[in-house]
Amino acid sequence: MLLIPCPWCGPREEAEFHYGGQAHVAYPDDPSALSDEEWARYLFFRDNPKGRFAERWSHSAGCRRWFNAVRDTATNEIHAVYRVGEARPVTS
Amino acid sequence: MSPRTPGADLPEHPDRLWSAAEPKSSYDVVIVGGGGHGLATAYYLAKNHGITNVAVLERGWLAGGNMARNTTIIRSNYLWDESAGIYEHALKLWEGLEEELDYPLLFSQRGVLNLAHSLQDVRDSVRRVHANNLNGVDAEWLDPEQVKQVCPIVNISPDVRYPVLGATFQPRAGIAKHDHVAWGLARAAAALGVEFIEHCEVTGLQVRDGRVTGVETTRGTIAAGRVALCAAGHTSVVAATAGIDLPIQSHPLQALVSELLEPVHPTVVMSNAVHVYVSQAHKGELVMGAGIDAANSYRQRGAFHIIERQMAAALELFPVFARAHVLRTWGGVVDVSPDASPIVGLTPVENLYLNCGWGTGGFKATPGVGWCFAHTVANDEPHPLNAPFSLDRFTTGALVDEHGAAAVAH
């Protein structure tokens, strides 16, 4: 189980959190203007790196706030957590 | 008294089923991944299409990834016509595979129960039974008493949190011994000339003018006329080296076995709502699978709370398991697709073929996908049974949504 440092509450166990997948995926400004390829990319394609990955978590059984984390998917090590709206920190 | 050589009194080592090969500089077809799908693809390439200058490259040992980690359930009771096509093709091949490979696979058609715990479950399940019947897939709807007849240890008491309101039953479903399946396929493919190269990780695909020309590996560069990806949870990593993005996400999927018990469980039971699926292996262990861990990961281990929830669900359904001990838990990395259906077919790169996205349910398809993927690679054109599972369905919108029938985990 992961020990996830919520930026508001501190380290809590993974069971308190809800996962939100890749971070920094913006809703398209004008969805109806997208081509089928662009819409498919927005809807279905997410990065799947073996390595550092910026992802969203919600502390659903705690402060109930969303935040972002940079976690290495090869080791599960969490290199940084940061609040929504902040830029992805440089971790290496 | 002279010391005895350790092992001197053991029987002779049996004949090897295949011999490990040194990589040649070039092959007609290179298959990336020596799991069940890679082995089946190699076998049918050689057998059905006469293509025998084939290497299967495996980063670990043969069939040591998800092929060694799955819960061996075989069934074909999916909802849509496209799925019925490929999964039922696989089940029909399973029914003759032991004879064909001349190797014991411990294939046991003991049936599968997919439990319904809510009114919506019941409606969906009955609908699926009708869809299965229309597609020639054996399926019937059982009420709780009939469920009890098929599997006496299921708790059908109405006063539990998720009461059993009935189940779909596919009598032809069952289990097989996964290791034997891999060994049988490898032996048969090796006899036809296929080479297996273990501890050979593909680190990059070589692409020239939009066409794949070979693979870079930890044991050197190997030229290839065609390259077929069967890398399951690592497909994104390999495909990315050819500039191909895929709509799949890699997650850990866990399973466990109990200590060896006397035969108590005559069939396979799966439950969507409470996230557990259980069978009893020939040897006697209860084999139970969980749902995926929510977060992406390439670690072959999952979180304990997933196992804990799975056990809670199993105990409610099977109170008789309360005194059983967990012997071993493990995890594998599965490639989950957006519609819980696989992606099998051509890619934007010429002569590069894709077989991924099987998520939590690839084992059952092993011979079927091997058959169809070999056809795809040999003819540079999808087999009719895997044509609906193209990569471009995510653009056209022709999804094959099997979240209901894929059962747990997606």
UniProtKB/TrEMBL annotation, chain A:
| Coiled coil regions in record | none
Per the UniProt entry, what is one GO biological process? Answer: tetrahydrofolate metabolic process
| Pfam families tied to this protein | SoxD
Q: What are the protein's GO molecular function terms?
A: sarcosine oxidase activity
Q: What InterPro entries does the database record attribute to this sequence?
A: SoxD, SoxD_sf
Extract the NCBIfam families matched here.
Answer: soxD
Q: What is this protein called?
A: Heterotetrameric sarcosine oxidase delta subunit
UniProtKB/TrEMBL annotation, chain B:
Coiled-coil stretches noted in the UniProt entry, renumbered to this chain: none
Protein keywords? Cytoplasm, FAD, Flavoprotein, FMN, Nucleotide-binding, Oxidoreductase
GO BP, one annotated term: tetrahydrofolate metabolic process
- For whether the record's keyword set contains Flavoprotein, the answer is yes
Record keywords: Transcription regulation included?
Answer: no
Q: Where in the cell is it found?
A: Cytoplasm
Q: Which SUPFAM superfamilies match?
A: FAD-linked reductases, C-terminal domain, FAD/NAD(P)-binding domain
Please name one Pfam family that this protein belongs to: DAO
GO cellular component terms given for this protein: cytoplasm
What reaction(s) does this enzyme catalyze?
Answer: sarcosine + (6S)-5,6,7,8-tetrahydrofolate + O2 = (6R)-5,10-methylene-5,6,7,8-tetrahydrofolate + glycine + H2O2; sarcosine + O2 + H2O = formaldehyde + glycine + H2O2
Sequence ranges assigned to domain Rhodanese in this UniProt record:
29-73
Co-factor requirement? FMN; FAD
EC class name: oxidoreductase
Instruction: Supply one GO molecular-function term.
Output: sarcosine oxidase activity
EC numbers listed for it are: 1.5.3.24
Classification via InterPro entries = FAD-dep_OxRdtase, FAD/NAD-bd_sf, Rhodanese-like_dom, SoxB
**Predominant location category:** cytoplasm
Q: Which family does it belong to?
A: Belongs to the SoxB family.
Designated name of the protein: Sarcosine oxidase subunit beta
Species this protein is from: Nonomuraea dietziae
Q: Output the lineage of the source organism.
A: Bacteria, Bacillati, Actinomycetota, Actinomycetes, Streptosporangiales
